[in-house]
Amino acid sequence: MRKGYRVIDVAKMMEVNPSAVSRWEQGTSMPNTIKLVKLADLYGVPLDNLIIRQLEK
Fold it and tell me: Looking at the domain assignment, is residue 2 inside a domain?
């Protein structure tokens, strides 16, 4: 889930702690629905791509 953003940049945009973004990337936790929508917009991907990717882990 990279598009040239650092964890700290995504955390600021999502208004969360950088450790939360790291947990999302590692698959140890998942953002809430509102954050998923914002992430999909940020990365320019369909929302279902993020959800399916998480379910496959």
Answer: no
pLDDT exceeds 90 at position 54? no
Q: DSSP letters of 2-55? A: -SS--HHHHHHHHTS-HHHHHHHHHTSS---HHHHHHHHHHHT--HHHHHHHHH
- For residue range 20-33, what is the model confidence (pLDDT) as tens digits? 999 998 989 989 99
Number of domains in the chain: 1
Q: What's the pTM value of the predicted model, to 2 decimals?
A: 0.80
Confirm whether 34 is domain-assigned: yes
What is the domain extent for residue 25?
7-56
State the Cα–Cα distance between residues 7 and 15, nearest whole angstrom. 12
